[in-house]
Amino acid sequence: MRLTPRDTKYFDLLAALAQHLVRGSSLLAELLGADKAGREKLAEEMHEVEHLADDATHSIMRRLNQTFVTPFDREDISGLASALDDCMDEMDEAADLIVLYKVEGLPDRVSDQVQVLQRCAELTAEAMPRLRSMDKLADYWVEVNRLENQADKLHRKLIAQLFDDLANDPVQLMKLKEIVEVLENAADSFEKVANMVETIALKES
């Protein structure tokens, strides 16, 4: 039994932040299949979601500065919020690059990359409320790690495909390679969140 009260609002704030990742990954998937005008509109929506995620992260940081007793280590709360925000930043950057580089067509495996990000976002959003009880979280981090391994394989195949298909078009090659790399970074960021959740759960068990 705890003798001091805990501010449990953090669980709600982290869950809300993770929901922005679900929306962001969905917008990214829509953007891949849109025309030029549609992509620009979706990228603007993505920026709005990214700003909402920033606001949610700042709310958590402000609360940390105002709260004496936290549900788990304040460094872990801060790190987890920042890691979640990083996922959103990477997806926003990918959407931005697709629009700025005026990419006409993207390889099919880019869609596969984004599908992995969508699933990671969904799993992360489902996991955040369970931090309240630290219950049934192992399946989450195991599956996200599996998905990140899948993303790694997709990334390697995509890079090889780009060098094969665009050997005579170095500018297009550089554009697509950067987009693919940012999507891979997003998958890495989701894995980082899962690893942090595992660490927190083990510390609190």
Notes on the structure:
80% of the residues lie in helices and 0% in strands. It is mainly α. The chain is globular, with a radius of gyration of 18 Å.
Class per helix and strand makeup: mainly alpha
DSSP strand count: 0
* Contiguous helical run count: 6
Radius of gyration: 18 Å
What proportion strand? under 5%
Largest sheet geometry: none
Distance between the termini: 14 Å
Helix/strand order: HHHHHH
Low-confidence region ranges: 1-5
Give the helix proportion (percent range).
Answer: over 70%
Give average pLDDT, whole number: 93
Large-scale geometry = globular
List key phrases describing it.
205 residues, mainly alpha, 6 helices, globular, disordered N terminus
Topology summary:
Blueprint: H1 9-32, H2 36-66, H3 74-100, H4 108-127, H5 138-165, H6 170-204
Describe this structure in a few short sentences:
This protein is an all-alpha fold. The protein is built from 6 helices and no strands.
